[in-house]
Amino acid sequence: MSQVNRLRQGGRIDRARTLSFTFNGKRYQGHAGDTLASALLANGVDLVNRSFKYSRPRGIVAAGAEEPNALVQLGSTEAAQVPNVRATQQALFEGLTAQSTNGWPNVQRDVMSLVGKLGGRFMPPGFYYKTFMAPASMWMTYEKYIRKGAGLGRSPMENDPDSYDHLNQHCDLLVVGAGPTGLAAALTAARAGARVILCDEQEEMGGSLLDSRELLDDRPAAQWAEQVISELAENDNVTLLPRTTANGYHDHHFVTLHERRTEHLGETAPTIDGVRPTRSRMHRVRAGQVLLATGAHERPLVYGNNDVPGNLVAGAVSTYIRRYGVVPGNKLVLSVSNDHAYRAALDWDEAGREVVAIVDARRNPDGELVEQARARGIRIIEGAAVLEAKGDKRVSGARVATIDAAAFKVTGQAELLECDTIASSGGYSPVIHLASHTGARPTWDDEILGFVPSLVKGVHAAGSARGVHDLAGGLADGAAKASEALAALGKSASAIEPPRADAIREGQACALYQVPHEKPTLRAPKQFVDMQNDVTAAAIELATREGFESIEHVKRYTAMGFGTDQGKLGNINGMAIAARCLGKSIPEVGTTVFRPNYTPVTFGAIVGRHCRELFDPERYTALHQWHVENGAEFEDVGQWKRPWYFPKTVNGKQESMDEAVARESLAVRTGVGILDASTLGKIDIQGPDAREFLGRVYTNKWAKLAPGRVRYGLMCKDDGMLMDDGTTSCLGENHFLMTTTTGGAAGVMEWLELWHQTEWPELQVTFTSVTDHWATMTVTGPDARKLLSEITDIDLDREQFKFMDWRNGKVADVPARVFRISFTGELAYEINVQANYAMHVWKTLFEHGKKYDLTPYGTETMHVLRAEKGLIIAGQDTDGSVTPEDLGMFWAIGYDKPFSWIGKRALTRPDTARKDRKQFVGLKPVDPKVVLEEGAHIVVDKDQPIPMDMLGHVTSSYYSPNLESGFALAVIKGGRDRMGETLYVPMPDGQAHEVEVVSPVFIDPKGERQHV
Amino acid sequence: MSDITYGKVATFNTHPDASIPMESPLSVAFNTGSVPAATSGSRVLFKEQAFLGHLILRGGAIVLDEAVRKVLGISLPGQPLGLALDASGERSVQWLSPDEWLVIVPGGEEFELEQRLRDALGDAHYAIVDVSGGQTLVSLEGEKARELLMKSTNYDVHPSRFPVGKAVSVVFGKSSLILRRPSEERYELVLRRSFADYLYRWILDAGAEYAIGVEQ
Lengths: 1012, 216
Fold this sequence. Notes:
- The complex is a heterodimer of chains A (1012) and B (216).
- Chain A is an alpha+beta fold.
- Helix content of chain A is 22%, strand content 27%.
- Chain A contains 24 helices and 52 strands.
- In chain A, strands 8, 9, 12, 13, 14, 15 and 29 form a 7-stranded mixed sheet that branches. In chain A, strands 43-44-45-42-36-46 form a 6-stranded mixed sheet.
- In chain A, helix 5 (180-191) packs parallel to helix 11 (471-488), helix 8 (342-350) runs parallel beside helix 9 and helix 12 crosses helix 14.
- Chain B is an alpha+beta fold and 216 residues long.
- Chain B has helices spanning 27-32, 61-72, 110-121, 145-152, 196-207, and strands spanning 3-6, 9-12, 45-49, 53-58, 83-85, 92-97, 100-105, 127-130, 135-141, 166-172, 175-183, 186-192, 213-215.
- In chain B, strand 6 (92-97) and strand 7 (100-105) form a beta hairpin.
- The radius of gyration of chain B is 18 Å and the shape is globular.
- The two termini of chain B are 34 Å apart.
- At the A-B interface, strand 8, helix 17, strand 41, strand 44 and helix 22 of A face strand 2, helix 1, strand 8, helix 4 and helix 5 of B.
């Protein structure tokens, strides 16, 4: 099909470059510079979609972000699918492939439209809620089909071939919108030396100047725009962002801009200079001040069948003619409430097509544009409006009559005007979305018949965005507001001298939103308010009758302004209709809240580079590469990658985790094993009051710990509940090294600083994290001493270097601190060396360890071994509700310490002294093959009907190769008095495991092995 | 003797007498990850300065300033976020918090420096902690280095806000690091050992479009 609606000349398209594209399976041609919408209109494609709820045929209505109908699905391949793209915002590129978002089996012949036609009258607001209410459990099922029928585009089912990123930006002034106002503002700020970001959502900067009829300094307005943009581009302090939508205004002038970097070039990012750029980019802007030059959206009038293809807003007609050289029809009826919209008729007339009539709701309009239209002999019908469009898939006529807008009545006989296009204008609504994101409620301005933004500190609106709609006014306002904004930052900027614009005298507009019809609203042909969500004037009237009086309730009941639309075209009309029905004024009814994002943002841009291997930091120890090379399976512990177990290949078969853990556990109990314990948190504590401080944050006593000795400590929150545990070594009289759990390291560090800085600043003590500085290798097992003695100069004699001592010396020639502490219950040495030397020491240990069959083990074996000894893991066996007493650790509580340590007072509360608190015990399954499930509940009577009385739960459970049995740790009400009792652990499948309550220490209760 | 007790605090020389192979926090990345070579088209250059001496100084500025000047020849940065270097540029002192400074010196100097500072500081309350094994210094240069930083941190790195002589702890990707501006043409990053691999991958990814090159 040829471009039947393309003018021979004019517009900002490049006629020398023809581009082919496919829409709903049909090939068309357009030109470089087209949007998909302008190219479709050029080709005479009327029908672009089916409506969301009623499946009515829909065409292109607008030319920008406010387009409600022309939502398309882009992509020629599965991976390239992008849903809900506005055809009006999508630049045309060679090979573009698009489909209507709605419509099944296709947009021309739609099955759902039958439902819409038959059910139309029976689908009032709340239809789905009302109809599919019962049974409630079925709603999920209903919803699946309702959504499929409605259709909202679809996500790709394959991985996105493109990448996306973020860029953090800072500026003195962020200017949103590069129309006349925004350009004047940016120029003012840039010339004053400010850091400026200017963003604009369109393919080309210039806004209304690109299709303006007016001259600036006696030249076409677009030329002035080009000149300003090139000046700004040369300024190092100015960042120009075309194709960039300011989508969200967050707190403290943090604004997210979404830049489409390659979407005008192809459906996936092309390779440019050997690099595939990110497809889109989120600019995270922290602005000193923000100037909103977002312009206005023209309001269509609300009349019968105003959604039939061929109904457009007036300004869009001008845009298509003047910017794209496309006339979207042959015979125009223009229905207006103001002068400004007359441009559409003048442009149409100049394009050589017929203007059937201008229908003006005012009597005796007399502005300059009106005079121009009269001078051309265009018929003007005064005091009238289009009541109703005729036609099905394209407008075929307009029923026009005189009306009394104030009385909401048709006063004259309707006349049928034959036409194929109806353009309407009910006035101009400032685009206040971003200002609304700040939470500021807009205020109604009777003068401009629109809401103007309320502004929080640091936000400025200028030009059309605050109702200054004339060109000269907008230019001056942009410059002045930029100057004010910079003054607020203490910078002086004199407003630029704006170019000279002809003042066009415009008559006063009248207030017209919904056009009256001969029939009452509920019986009149559908008058659409929000076309994207299929909300009609009747729906709003019905909602108010059903008692929804708050505009917020009306919105939710009818879905007006929902979703991607965010009320761009319809909200003000909807409020006006609600006001009429409720007998209130528009300001009394108020407006709903616009929310981010202004237009849809692809998930990729939100995620940026935070995906795949960069999704979350992976922390490695100094020995990580050895673990990888030796086949470790890894466990995530916080952000750390810790070896979980080291499966061996036995007879050509890799061990399972159970097999590896059994082997590793036995090796530690019978020979020697080694663990990379570098992830434990380590805090260097220095100062004359270090010892006193430890006494206050730990529950136990530190006064007498001598240099060279180590002690285990418990740390409680102020509620008396265990928070973290670990050993702390006395390095010198005023010097300690604290260890924390791997996951608790950062939290403990903050905890110490918090108490020092806020409660006890008088204590002379400092804390420094040395977690990453030291690598820690735990050599443990009966052969540990023999192995270590081969490569150290430290005297390992059991009398010289006792359990809970630490010593300095060399290990594998590297200076080391060796701590004789044990988390396995076996003889153990924790070797600490500066991390850069760790690999050498580790490898040397293995060289010498061969004859002892030195076995690397991971966190799983560590868990089994410590559990066999009844040693807790804070965060696994405790959950923030467990006190040291609950754990039976009375030996680690210094109630008689002179200073009241953190948690002490809480431990004297009656609740923490209750006899039936959950206490820490061991569980032995009667069937040794049973390994209980962690988290499983424990009951007395396995036959008690549900809900059963639950005594407690399993906190840790493993199979022990040393015990040749499953075993578990648990917390049980009054557990210490239940030793020897038989209890049950019921499972979801109905069986109940029989268990015996035992001491949590399963191996070596006297601790002889770790003291050898 | 690797361990000397200064009054009531234990110090510790982490370095062996023998020649022992060392592995920097970026060893795994260099050994197993991608290491794009620098070319004439590289608009960002990445270079690690491994195995330097890193000390954390804690204490009041008044207490520390004189000793640092005497021992190191550098005045403590007077302003928050300050970075001061000696004439050679090899030694630096950086403000970290109101009572916390980071001193970076050529590798192996740190233990002697700590002893001399302790001698100079006497009985005052202060702390010196060797963290040399826990972090590493990286430099970024090139015309797109600043843009790479903009992708990575929300801190304002425009020259007007981040001039030479400034150093700041920043969020970087989803981790954090210390960002320093020792000279016009160079940024320095202090990476924590355990996050070094993630940060390296992040930087390479962000630098791909600038043909980032790694100099070893």
